Amino acid sequence: MWSYVSPRLIIYGEDALEALSTENAERVLIVTDKSIEKLGFIDAVKEKLKASKIEVFNEVEPEPSIDTAIACAKTARKFAPELIIAVGGGSVLDVAKMTRILMEIDVDPIGILPSLDLTELGFKKRSKLIAIPTTSGTGADVTWACVLSDKAEKRKMTPANKEIVPDISILDYRIVEKMPKNLIAGSGMDALTHAIEGLVSIWKNDFSDAMCEKALELILENLEKSYNGDLSARAKMHIAATMAGLGFGNSQVGLVHSLGHAFGAFFNVHHGLSVGIFLPYVLQYYRKSNAKDILDKVSKKIGSGDTNGLIARITTLMRNINVPTRVSEVVKEKEFFENIENLTMAALNDASLAMSPRIPDFGEIQKIYECALFGREVDF
Ligand SMILES: [Fe+2]
């Protein structure tokens, strides 16, 4: 048995934020971070609301900890909102998703595993959750997992349950009009990786394929234009990131995310860049798996020839949007080799690996990392 998970509503367009004026909640909790607040987005959201009481939790940090979600839930329990609105990037959206669970149920977030049925724990969704992404990449507005850091254990946890998905996603094009270039590139590479990994995951299905294929086409057509200031391309990227989220959220990511999660955690590199840098190398590695047939077919459809053509197109795109194409551009060789064994072990233990169409062993992961360090082709 399979299912397709998504919010019940996705509202998009230049004036999508206007949809908030139809919300009748009296008590609204806005979850965000301080930089988003400074950009004026929270004032814009408040202006649309009729609510008599609005509380703002702005303490979400990058790579947020479980403790932040617990603190936000404490605020939510006290305030008892009818509506929670998350305004921010993936970190903010993930904290808000977990907050909605924790404000109702006394549960250890680490214990929320994909198999746990929250409805049996009495999760009634007393608060509606609206996600308003301010970047175009994570797809967190439509996925049913959240990534939180367990700072004490120095690891990332991914509590997941189909009840976690937000009720509504609002994709307002104006919100991403002033996104900084480095964020357009980084979050765009995350979306591109989601679209491709969702397409070749062993959990792929007809629903996820449709979303991933269209997202891939839109991203390859629009990311560079968006980076160079084309606002209609930026609007397309905002849609594409959410489509990729619906795609990979219903099939899963794979080896690129395993390598990227470990790399990002060790060297403190932005998630989108951490995964993007390994994308061409993993696609080279996948050429000796059934993923090649899938990628050949999709590449032909979108005018990239075959898998090799797609890899070349991605590498050119990365150079054109100033994304590093080899690890040595980001980390010093000596520092990289000092950590290579721990890095390889972390990638090997990452949950995303299980859904890859070809699963490397310890030695192969290390070799892929080394190829990515020096910009060498993965030919094994
Ligand atoms: Fe990602």
- Number-wise, the strands total 8
Question: What's the number of structural domains?
Answer: 2
Instruction: Give the overall shape, derived from the CA principal axes.
Output: globular
Tell me the quaternary state: single chain
CATH architecture of the largest domain: Up-down Bundle
Reported by name, the CATH topology of the largest domain is Dehydroquinate synthase-like, alpha domain
Mind describing the biggest β-sheet?
Answer: 6 strands, parallel
> What CATH first level of the largest domain would be assigned?
Mainly Alpha
Bin the helical content. 40-55%
Strand content range: 5-15%
Mind explaining what this structure looks like?
With 380 residues, the chain is α/β, with parallel strands linked by helices. It folds into two domains: 9-176, Rossmann fold (3-Layer(aba) Sandwich), CATH 3.40.50.1970; 181-374, Dehydroquinate synthase-like - alpha domain (Dehydroquinate synthase-like, alpha domain), CATH 1.20.1090. The chain is 48% helix and 10% strand. The protein has 14 helices and eight strands. It has a six-stranded parallel sheet, with helices on both faces. Strand 6 and strand 7 form a beta hairpin. Helix 3 packs across helix 4. The longest helix is centred in the middle third of the chain and has 22 residues, at 206-227. The structure holds fe (ii) ion. Residues 190, 194, 257, 271, 275 line the site of fe (ii) ion (FE2). Fe (ii) ion binds at residues 190, 194, 257, 271, 275.
